[in-house]
């Protein structure tokens, strides 16, 4: 197929955020081009976990049957400080189940969904520059197989992930003085691949037995294997002084017996994660950053697929407005307060001795951990009016009022 020279909406990056945006924009009747540097299917470093909030977005996209044909789980089994708690997904306004699908498959399916909705796909094309005239982006320059070409656009959605190279060209700045994550994952065969719980080890210990500010996870994939990973939190002031791949290998060995792990850890990879809206310059008059590019990642658990899918839907609602005003306002309205309190709490956990002091007390209480799952798992929706939701929102309002640089500014 020949590459189009111009389009109404150009989406750069076909991860969950970009593919969702392209699908919704095409379903809105617009001309859409969805471009990516990779050729699909492609891998992406991730835990592959789909929380109920991500499931809700996949269901909105019409993918319920597809998701349910994969493994489904009923909640989180939290381990640590001598306790194991089984915490069911709370349900309410969100689906009451989660899943885990390897990103090689999930992202390919989401991209195909966008193409079936009417978007035109361009693969193997790396965005390297933007042509800006009168403050508006008029076109994006791509490189493919030694060739350089431009796609002109009326509107641009930038969904190019953690490092956001195109976002950088447009002035995106990542603030690492706010908490971020260093995380890695691998795949291991397991006799517990059909376990109906995802597992997190909140007492993550390094090779010297020291407690680290982060957690380890084992997410069953239902195909004979599990996704095993570990993530630690860091800030410029308190950088993560741990090599993530050796830590992950150590974690796999620690869990080998209880999770029936067998054979080698395959495909170990690691990445940094901007979190909690800790980026500035996320929009211009006719362009907007979404997903990881806009640091839409939960500071308390590192999940970002749900925010990516949601952001891809929300940005299409405001495409005909001045995005430099409406997009930061939309993100602040939906995520500002919860990101502010969540990153404040995550920042506290990076302080040595805080986790060893608070962890055991938290894990002794089912009630506290059920609340924590809801707050930490992005499972409070705008519609929820119960006490736990009201307390979370109150804390968020208090927190954002104290921020010297609120999320997305
Ligand atoms: C170790 C780890 C574990 C995680 N576990 C989970 C989890 O279990 N659940 C969860 O919800 N989230 C998890 N996350 C976060 C999640 O992976 C991201 O939040 C999510 O992938 C964000 O989606 P996105 O569409 O914004 O970006 P991406 O999925 O990164 O997609 C970006 C796309 O942009 C393309 N691209 C990049 N540069 C260019 C360019 N110059 N030109 C063209 N295309 C370009 C890339 O090829 C890619 O396809 C984890 C992250 C890490 C690092």
TrEMBL record:
A Pfam match: FAD_binding_3
The protein's name in its UniProt record: Putative oxidoreductase
UniProt-listed Gene3D superfamilies: FAD/NAD(P)-binding domain
Superkingdom: Bacteria
Protein's organism: Knoellia locipacati
Domain FAD-binding: 6-175
GO MF annotation terms: FAD binding; oxidoreductase activity, acting on the CH-CH group of donors, NAD or NADP as acceptor
